[in-house]
Give the backbone structure.
Amino acid sequence: MALSLEIRSGFVYMVEAKSKIKSGPINISKTIFFEFPDSWIDNQGIREIDEFSSLLAEHLRKNNIKEKDCILSINNASIIYRELIVPKLDDKKTPFIVRSEMMNALNLTPDYIMDYIVLEEIRKEEEASQLRVLAVAMLESAIQSYLQAFKKAKRNIVAIDSATNAVIKLANEARLFTDDDPVILVDVGNANLRLYLFESGMYVLSRNARLVSYSEGDKESVIPIVEDNINKMIQFSYTRSKKAIKKIVLMGMDELLPDIQKVLFDSLFVPCDILQMPQSFISSVGFQTKYVNAYGALIRK
């Protein structure tokens, strides 16, 4: 068994799986989400540890989830992203270079824990090879707050993933890219929007935007903001590559996606799909795209 949780601002999305991807398709047995006050988590981590752990334990107990080991996908202000270009050196030296570049670029203190993934190797004639990496940073105290909260809920965090890395892994496993044309992935959350641009099957960048909370507003308030931000990403992509966006892939708040799909097709004239269950590595009844970051975190690479 495996248990994956995405922690957003104000929401937790949980996925319980019966198997891991290395042994075949991930067999999803349960999906649950619950809401908590936004103020409980900020860039310092979990502020209300006792309250958060009690609420988490309550939902785990109520849904009869017994798995103790957890994988976290962090998708809130606790985590900082930065794309860097660094020299390609010995593998042992790269973490130190990434850490130094992150501290200089973002004025971070030694209190931050940092990690990275290699996006691509850049080679130019008569020049040394470089690496394009996606680096992440979290305050050590923030990480400790998550560990402490889950320990109070009698759970053990075995891995922490970033939402962006989870999406990159899921997009690759789902084979969303078949050629070099740009693709935009859109994660429509409750009160938050995240857009990912991929070119030639590789992650380029992501952008965040605030949305009207769906519980406080309605479709007519949310959809125009989504449309405007996607349009801006399309324009940005064209200035980079001079290629038209091949398609837009929607995920997130499943109940809103069909309406967003229709508006985008009518206004932007770009093929727009709702993410379908990647049958090559997920087996699930009642697939919902709101859990994509938790699914992606289950892919351990």
